[in-house]
Amino acid sequence: MRIIAGRLRRRTLKTNPGLITRPITDRVKETLFQRLHDRGLIEGTRIADIFAGTGTMGLEALSRGGERVTFIEKDRVAVELLRENVEKLKCQNESLIWPADVVRCSYKPKNAEGFTPFNLIFFDPPYAMVPQLQPGSTLYKSLERLAGPEASAPGATMIFRSPEHCEFQLPPIWQPDWTLEMSNMVITVCNLVSPPADALKSTGIEPSGME
């Protein structure tokens, strides 16, 4: 794997062999990032790379003008390779690596001043988890927590990757905007929207955070 464009272009990245991290192909990554760039969604953003693996998406966004990136990943091998990638690219000051379980974490990492709230979020769960994304599931609740004001900025953009022909339900606070279907996968790009105040009560999100 490599960085495709930006200040770190052509730099190679270590990846975790096997299916755990599901690396995205260069063709899909280039198409996605070009569309994000055309919409002004990368430059100067605070990024979250969730289920980060070895950091392919977050580091690409950083290379293309993102300000800082928080990587959330619990697999120990992937985290170690991620640390090596960040050090190799000399991005330590712009990167926060948080070894945490996404379905249980608060999205409030310690010593994260300047890294949150997120403007651009890559949310890439293991494919086996995606069909479980239904109201009341741990993954669904995780996405509701991610919408909280301490985690995500108003109007934040989330990129959600799933296998093709897979049924799932995103929390309505994450409103799908457009999709990209390539290489047996579907990438759904969502915007964080402001729901009615009574709808927020069930999620535990403070209405003030969505103003």
Protein model, in words:
The protein is of the alpha/beta class and 211 residues long. The protein is built from five helices and seven strands. The protein has helices at residues 26-38, 56-63, 76-88, 138-146, 197-201, and strands at residues 46-50, 68-72, 95-98, 118-123, 152-163, 174-182, 185-192. The chain has a seven-stranded mixed β-sheet with strand order 3-2-1-4-5-7-6, with helices on one face. β2, α3 and β3 (95-98) form a beta-alpha-beta unit. The radius of gyration is 16 Å and the shape is globular. Residues 196-200 and 207-211 have low confidence and may be disordered.
Features:
211 residues; alpha/beta; seven-stranded mixed sheet; 7 strands; 23% helix; globular; disordered C terminus
Provide a compact summary of the structure.
This protein has 211 residues and is α/β, with parallel strands linked by helices. The chain has helices at residues 26-38, 56-63, 76-88, 138-146, 197-201, and strands at 46-50, 68-72, 95-98, 118-123, 152-163, 174-182, 185-192. Helices cover 23% and strands 23% of the residues.
